[in-house]
Amino acid sequence: MGMQQGRDMNKDAQTAMWHQTYHDSGIMSGATTTAHSVKGDEDDDYMKTTHMSFEWEQSFNDHEMQAMNEQFVSTRSQRIRQAMFPETLEEGAQIPSTQFDSTSSTAVQRLAEPSLMLKQAVVNLINYQDDADLATRAIPELAKLLNDDDQVVVGQAAMMVHQLSRKDASRHAIMNSPQMVAALVRALNNMSDVETTRCAAGTLHNLSHHRQGLLSIFKSGGIPALVKLLGSQVEAVVFYAITTLHNLLLHQEGAKMAVRLAGGLQKMVALLGRGNVKFLAIVTDCLHVLAYGNQESK
């Protein structure tokens, strides 16, 4: 009995010592005990988020919440229109947003993305057709202007055709017009104005990226005119000429013989003294194509 009381006293003394030395494990007092989470620090974020959500919910009464819900329901179609067809809304129209985080999209905005992509594709198709129709109507008149006796008129027409050739739809319309390509080649042969020559050569360069364009240039007698341009003092003109001839040599049947007959081999050899590495690579490839299988060219 005495021994049992001694053991009980020892337990009381040990408990008192734990409290005095602040080594409470939590088993005795339970004051600082929290269950360990396998999620770690995420619990703190969850508690903060839950607390914030709770405070937000408490800031509105039932009547206010019902009014907000009715407003969102009544403006649902407007919010869909705003996401998919914003241009159909009246200017200055105020539409309540369901977006509380500006860095993330709403459900309506995410669902509208495929429709917006389709809409843009349709707009591009319409613009493409508009460009093609505009070029088709303008080409006959521009071809006449390129053949005008007034050099200023020819220069303005060449500039307009060059701008049109930068767009895919109008470029196809130009290359499908033998009259237009022939007028460009004629302008190269007859004009002494540097800017007009640059625009006409640039247009042929743009056409040379397509097989139909290469054929049109070849049939219009463009190769002798391009070979002549290799002797120009204007870097841009020489670049347009050599790259167009390069495309012709690679992809157009009969171009090799036409370049040889026009004296292109000698003109290209004279260009080997240039310092531009990329330019020299094009020139040497042209010479390689001309010399391959032709003993006279070698």
UniProtKB/TrEMBL annotation:
GO BP annotations listed: cell adhesion
A Pfam family per the record: Arm
Gene Ontology MF term list: cadherin binding
PROSITE patterns, per the entry: ARM_REPEAT
Repeat positions for ARM: 137-177, 179-222, 221-263
SMART domains assigned: ARM
Name used for this protein in its record: Armadillo segment polarity protein
Biological source species: Nematostella vectensis (Starlet sea anemone)
